[in-house]
Design brief:
Elements (H helix, E strand, L loop, with lengths): L3 E8 L1 H4 L7 H12 L4 E8 L3 H14 L4 E5 L10 H8 L2 E2 L1 H11 L13 E4 L2 E6 L3 H11 L3 H7 L21
Parallel strand pairs: 1-2, 1-3, 3-6
Antiparallel strand pairs: 4-5, 5-6
Length: about 180
């Protein structure tokens, strides 16, 4: 069996310039370590909030590294440099808007500004790309909401079987007939 690779992409001008430590990417890695019982390898990058750079990194993670799942953080707000959803749409063949809809719904339980977030998700080849907000607390809240559907989505796009730690999170897969 080939190694399961998952891309973790932080889009941040300041973190990519070394002005502050990226806390969001490591928060995603910690959360996925809690969720997954499968052995997996992170492909972790921090890049500037620059649409061409984000697009190229997503393409590299999907096409060259073979990541079955790519989770981004940052760049989903309304600010001029927040272009991660645009980069995601530009590199995907299919968009999966339900992910963003559910994440906003969950985030609205905590902050009224969740309506400003433009997270989305899409499919590039055999990779599911999911955009998350930039705050570690919000990352966990959003992943708790959408992750139950992620292993089955990866199954459907012919990615590797993701086993989860059922004591932490339950993945939904339809029962075979």
């Amino acid at each position: 069996m080939s190694e399961i690779k998952i891309g973790i992409l932080t889009a941040s001008d300041r973190a990519s310039a070394g002005l502050y430590e990226d806390l969001s990417g490591p928060a995603i890695i910690d959360t996925l370590n809690d969720y997954l019982s499968s052995e997996w390898q992170p492909v972790y990058k921090v890049v500037a909030d620059d649409q061409p750079g984000v697009e190229q990194t997503l393409i590299n993670m999907a096409d060259d590294h073979g990541c079955c799942l790519i989770v981004t953080t940052g760049g989903t707000g309304p600010a001029p440099r927040d272009l991660v959803p645009e980069a995601t749409e530009a590199v995907c063949e299919k968009m999966m808007p339900g992910f963003g809809e559910l994440m906003r719904q969950v985030s609205l339980q905590y902050v009224p500004t969740a309506i400003l977030s433009r997270q989305t998700a899409g499919i590039r080849g055999k990779s599911l790309i999911v955009n998350l907000p930039g705050k570690p607390k919000s990352i966990r809240e959003c992943l708790d909401a959408v992750f139950p559907a992620i292993p089955y989505c990866v199954d459907l796009i012919e990615g590797p079987f993701l086993d989860v730690n059922e004591d932490v999170i339950k993945a939904f897969r339809p029962k075979a007939k």
